[in-house]
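Supplementary Methods, section 5.1.

A reviewer requested that the exact input to the structure prediction be made available. We therefore reproduce it here, unchanged from the version used in the analyses.
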Amino acid sequence: MAVIQAGASTNLADVDANLNLKVDAGLPALPSTGGYYTVSGGTSAVVAVSLATDTSLMSMRFSSATRKAYLYKYRLIIAVATVGTSALVAGSIGLQRFTAATPTGGTARTPQENNETATATEMTDVRDNNAALTVTSVVFGAEIGRTILPLFISGGAMWFEWIFEPIYPIVLANGDGIVLRTRVVMPATQTWLFAYTAHWKEA
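The structure derived from this sequence is encoded token-by-token as follows.
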């Protein structure tokens, strides 16, 4: 049997006689400043019909001079309020980078630490709005994910999940942000609601 060990610490992994790797991983160690965080939000009022292209519905902005944020998962749930028809043209919605200013309006959300012993997040502003956030002076950057909003001709819901790890997370430096934004105009009569949860690490 072989033992993989780090310095004078206890065993981290064993390899038995049949070459089976046995790992007691435990939880990831918390950074000296930072940690693992989530935030959730969503609308209690329906999203307007025919919502224009490039309408900002949710944003989160990072502000830290000492660490970075690593976004590794974003889940979006869409629920129909007023059904459309098969003749409508589907819209699309996506995640996009931004910088330079913080969106305003809507409802502010409070992130939470996955482990209460972690230091407070420096994701200083998270908010959402069923109509549109105000994005004065905001500079939009690269699109990092997009999906078509389904045409609902009967009641229902759908969820989308953007997963950036284990390949590579979305890295946010001081002043960077992510916005949920319509990318193609939404259907003319269909209305809907949305909810979201974002997961990230700071170090």
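The domain at 34-202 is CATH 2.60.120 (Jelly Rolls). These observations are discussed further in the main text.
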